[in-house]
């Protein structure tokens, strides 16, 4: 964790001062709690070891800004149908190996949590030697390039140069015409799109295994035919991501229905676990 990126040398004085004060505050809490053996009773006098721990606190505060991953559980209202559902943030964690994945606005993996463990799975075919990318919160099909670039620069201090940004791919709903990789094959593409819809149907009705099989076959087939920003292909990837989320930690709760007023509340609420 210590060796992960913290961009210590690029921080401005006000930021360094703020984080230093936070580190001092945390160090004082440790000292007051008797964390250090044989410590000086004076709260304002620090040994070399205590100062060293303070410097580690500051370093890790810098690291957390760029390397903390959200830990989610999936809230579901129905044990048989996947919707309504929503990701519920329950904490943050640092997974050092996952921190080495660079960002892409069209990531090649999805991640979900099983308890404290993070699981990463591919969303589309990854060729030998191709970079495996994660997403830091801004996918191209929900948000335009300018907004994504602004948010990434503010939060992570870099300008994204992924394919979606370089080619300025349109958001979802604006690219329903396929760009063929080689020979046009409308019949095969129609079949693969129908396969995606069947997979989405299975997903909606709670059969995640069949849904993933159909979605994966659809995605792999469409990748051979058309460019990756084709709307039905992106929709299939997004459905697959939802299926993966359902493989993680799931909590069944009527609160999901409360926050989705268009969904009818169940008559027998005893079917839900809390």
Architecture overview:
The structure is a single chain. The protein is of the alpha/beta class and 274 residues long. The chain contains eight helices and seven strands. It has helices at residues 13-32, 48-67, 145-156, 163-166, 186-204, 208-225, 231-245, 255-258; strands at residues 68-76, 85-94, 102-103, 109-114, 117-122, 133-134, 250-252. The protein has a three-stranded mixed sheet with strand order 2-1-7. Strands 3-6 form a two-stranded parallel ribbon. Strands 4-5 form a two-stranded antiparallel sheet. The two termini are 35 Å apart. 24% of the residues are buried.
List the helices and strands and how they pair.
Blueprint: H1 13-32, H2 48-67, E1 68-76, E2 85-94, E3 102-103, E4 109-114, E5 117-122, E6 133-134, H3 145-156, H4 163-166, H5 186-204, H6 208-225, H7 231-245, E7 250-252, H8 255-258
Parallel strand pairs: 1-7, 3-6
Antiparallel strand pairs: 1-2, 4-5
């Amino acid at each position: 964790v210590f060796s992960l990126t913290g961009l210590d040398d690029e921080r401005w004085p006000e930021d360094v001062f703020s984080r230093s004060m936070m580190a001092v505050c945390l160090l004082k809490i440790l000292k007051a709690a008797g964390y250090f053996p044989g410590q000086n009773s004076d709260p304002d006098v620090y040994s070399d070891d205590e100062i060293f721990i303070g410097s580690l606190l500051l370093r890790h505060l810098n690291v957390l800004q760029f390397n903390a991953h959200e830990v989610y559980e999936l809230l579901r209202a129905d044990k048989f149908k996947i919707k309504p559902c929503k990701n519920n943030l329950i904490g943050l964690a640092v997974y050092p190996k996952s921190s080495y994945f660079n960002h892409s606005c069209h990531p090649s993996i999805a991640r979900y949590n099983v308890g404290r463990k993070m699981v990463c799975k591919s969303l589309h075919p990854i060729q030998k030697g191709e970079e495996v990318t994660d997403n830091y919160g801004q996918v191209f099909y929900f948000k335009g390039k300018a907004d994504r670039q602004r948010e990434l620069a503010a939060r992570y201090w870099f300008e994204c140069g992924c394919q979606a940004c370089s080619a300025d791919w349109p958001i979802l709903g604006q690219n329903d015409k396929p760009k063929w990789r080689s020979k046009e094959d409308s019949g095969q593409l129609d079949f693969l799109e129908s396969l995606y819809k069947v997979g989405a149907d299975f997903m909606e009705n709670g059969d995640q295994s069949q849904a993933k099989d159909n979605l994966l076959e659809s995605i792999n087939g469409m990748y051979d035919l058309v460019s990756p920003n084709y709307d039905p292909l992106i929709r299939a990837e997004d459905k697959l991501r939802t299926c993966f989320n359902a493989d993680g930690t799931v909590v069944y709760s009527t609160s999901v229905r409360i926050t989705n007023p268009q969904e009818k509340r169940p008559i027998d609420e005893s079917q839900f676990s809390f």
